[in-house]
Amino acid sequence: MDTQTAKTRVEGSIAASERELLEILERLVAAKSITGNEYCGQAVMLEEFDRLGLEVDTWEPSVDALEDHPGFFRTSSYDECGYEGRENAVATVSGAGDGPTLALSGHIDVVPAAPESAWESDPWTLRRDGDEIYGRGVSDMKGGLAAILLAVDVLAEEGIDLAGDLYVQSTIEEEAGGVGGLLSVLERGYVPDAAIIPEPFGLPNVGIASAGVMFFDVTVPGKKAHAAWGHQGVSAFDKASHIASALNELNDQRQATIDFPPAYGADPSLEGHVTNINIGVVEGGDWPASVPAEVLMKGRVGWPPGESRADVRDAIESTIENAASEDEWLAENPPTIEWTGWNAAPHEVPRDAEIVEIVTQNAESIIGEDGTFVGGNAALDERFYKRYYDVPVVTAGPYGPNLHGVDEYTTVTSLLETAQTLATSAIDYCGIAE
Length: 434
Ligand SMILES: [Zn+2]
What we know:
The protein is an alpha+beta fold. The chain folds into two domains: 3-210 and 347-430, Aminopeptidase (3-Layer(aba) Sandwich), CATH 3.40.630; 212-344, Alpha-Beta Plaits, CATH 3.30.70. It is 37% helix and 21% strand. It has 13 helices and 18 strands. It has helices at 3-15, 18-30, 39-51, 63-66, 76-81, 142-157, 179-187, 236-257, 309-325, 328-332, 354-367, 382-389, 412-430; strands at residues 55-59, 88-93, 102-107, 127-129, 132-134, 166-171, 194-197, 206-210, 212-221, 225-226, 276-284, 290-291, 294-303, 336-344, 347-348, 373-375, 393-395, 409-411. It has a six-stranded mixed sheet with strand order 1-2-6-3-7-17, sandwiched between helices. Strand 4 and strand 5 form a beta hairpin. Helix 1 (3-15) packs antiparallel against helix 13 (412-430) and helix 8 crosses helix 9. The site of zinc ion has 5 residues, from loops. Pathway: Amino-acid biosynthesis; L-lysine biosynthesis via DAP pathway; LL-2,6-diaminopimelate from (S)-tetrahydrodipicolinate (succinylase route): step 3/3.
């Protein structure tokens, strides 16, 4: 069978497989696989791998095996749940020739659906309304996993033997940083020549980048006193707001000078805001009538490809040090900075990488519209492929404008188009066996 015939056949067969797609997605959505409790979602994936007759490898990640890796950090989901019972799963579809290996990869974990009462219907029951389907994870990214399964099923049904191997991956804890998920998959040896992750970036838009993200704690000291003798104390709140203003100024200056067009490719409102410093938690003080002795500010910095983690750490630390040196109290009693939790470097894939061109062409031809390159606002698992294994990776998935939100939704059409893009791109990339 020639490539074009094979592609036309899988496109037609996927278009006629709406019921199969929804049946898989319904079971995936019903599995409440919130980060830390992925087992119930993985059970559905394993049933599907079994139904497709695939060889599967499952394992729990191990901190001991990962902690020396430069991409490692201790995730909040590891701290809360450990890794016991939290298996990754990789199924291999062996190629019939010596073509390149492609990974189709997705995360099985979802964020909580709270407040569930705000949803129009139960978030854990797939609901269809015309072309729209609702439920936690339908776009991020159980819909993508269902599209992967459908693509693999249809390739087999149509009797298309790829020349290269396909890795079909279902990973844990992407929402907490993916260290025990995709990084563990790669460290186990599943390193393909290219990868596609159907996160909901809205085909024909194609994701080629992710943001760096780090969390930090700034602890600002004050001096405790009774409020009536407040002049004898030093308010840690006042000192913390001095530090917060300096960080705001740094943020303004960075936003005015740092640009990365893919970060606003799909959302023009993000132009001028492709990097962010946010103080998200402020804790301090213990009594209305006491001058607070300490304030803790917990922040996040996000930035597009272009700067290393060390560059960004230096910018923030020197801003805090300079602000402290301008203040008599803080010069003597400097704040402490600790980098804790999220610690992800950004990544960017060249636009002319073969997998980027293949996926872009297939998506544009299937959907009949031109797409744009997007990415660079949020951290993604994709970084592990590109940064540490030099594997080109594309984010290519369904429509999903309110991922993580109430009434998360996507469309049946965009999931079928995702499956078509995955299957045709696998044919182009891996080749067809003689
Ligand atoms: Zn996701």
